[in-house]
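Notes, p. 3: input format for complexes.
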Amino acid sequence: MFKKQPICEVCGDNEATFVSLIPVQPNSMDGSWKFTCDCTSQIEKNPLPINKIFSSPTATAEWLEHMREKNWFKKDDFLAMMNRYHDWQGIEK
Ligand SMILES: [Zn+2]
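Output follows (93 residues plus zinc ion):
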């Protein structure tokens, strides 16, 4: 799925296994999407296993379609996370 596994953007120590919404305050759905490992399990919202949502282009598209209906889902922030990954991995956009 990924040539190079993303690294957790919160601790920077481990391979990321999730994409998660990291809220600005506890119990808020306002926050930023980040690649994460288990280190954010106490604070993250809506953690999604990377090996599930990026298992195929169809899986990713279906997940994005599902999220589009949530009024708290900030597509631009999610895409910014993907762009950070592409920049880090050196993928042409
Ligand atoms: Zn981490």
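The longest helix spans residues 75-89.
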